[in-house]
Amino acid sequence: xxxxxxxxxxxxxxxxxxxxxxxxxxxxxxxxxxxxxxxxxxxxxxxxxxxxxxxxxxxxxxxxxxxxxxxxxxxxxxxxxxxxxxxxxxxxxxxxxxxxxxxxxxxxxxxxxxxxxxxxxxxxxxxxxxxxxxxxxxxxxxxxxxxxxxxxxxxxxxxxxxxxxxxxxxxxxxxxxxxxxxxxxxxxxxxxxxxxxxxxxxxxxxxxxxxxxxxxxxxxxxxxxxxxxxxxxxxxxxxxxxx
Length: 243
Prior knowledge:
- This protein is of the alpha+beta class.
- It has 6 helices and 13 strands.
- It is 31% helix and 26% strand.
- Helix 1 packs across helix 4.
């Protein structure tokens, strides 16, 4: 099977790479806020949010209006719009716990931008389009096929996160006599060998009977004499008579 795995390393940025990284991070933050303001305006006007592809069609006009956006790699700006669209879709998905995306403030958020292609990691250097080769602190080998690279700033340092596709064997439990047990909701018990037990649904089965007993209980009056009760319907006294 194929899994996704990320590798994070700290960059040793030169003064030029530092300036360009901050500039590109600011451009992507601007595009995020501009697109989010547009989507919120459409929602306030009872209109549907624009799709990712339609948002990308607005980038050329935004670059003409704000010339500094043209200096940032176009693919990073497109990835920012894609991330915003995914965040909005997740927020409006039924049952999702994700909150609606918010505006990013300078200095109050982690600047980041993503390269889906055009990058290259070689030895202890990574090539980032429009930035060049940057040395990173390679603490372990990168396994698998690189899919994308995310550049982010945390406090005063820049980092890269390389996401790769890796092929791994299907996990097989070494023992044929012992199984693992997982308790769930849709399936009550799931064993590691694939067997499962359907939920009992005890409440659903006894719901009508429970409602009937609760109605009968609501018509009864309890007295302080131990073991006594009085039914309003039958008017029959049951219990131990006091002496």
